[in-house]
């Protein structure tokens, strides 16, 4: 498996971690019948950790499409694939580190890690135009 494909696979695993973490914490609070039901009541979890998991997941999904687009662009039109992989690696690692920081409620460092992930996307964007 080449590096772009590996990063894409890891990113999908990371997406699944977000989905299952959010689902686990929400189900633990609201119960299995809520999870299995139609969720028509609009109930949302009130616990700190379930709320943080929801917000961390939403935050991940805000930048995930950009990562996917830039990684695929770098793989299909490899102007500078090494730079694309470097930026993608930074984004993936920062997003992995971000989860426990967000769940722990650690301010500032979490924001710095988020900025590092954005820096990874910028590197990937530069790679798309680098000749």
From TrEMBL:
It comes from Bartonella choladocola. InterPro entries: MAPEG-like_dom_sf (IPR023352), Membr-assoc_MAPEG (IPR001129). The chain crosses the membrane at residues 6-25, 81-102, 108-130. One of its GO terms (cellular component) is membrane. It is found in: Membrane. PANTHER family: BLR7753 PROTEIN, INNER MEMBRANE PROTEIN. This is Conserved protein, MAPEG superfamily. Keywords: Membrane, Transmembrane, Transmembrane helix. The keyword Magnesium does not apply. Pfam families: MAPEG. It comes from the Bacteria.
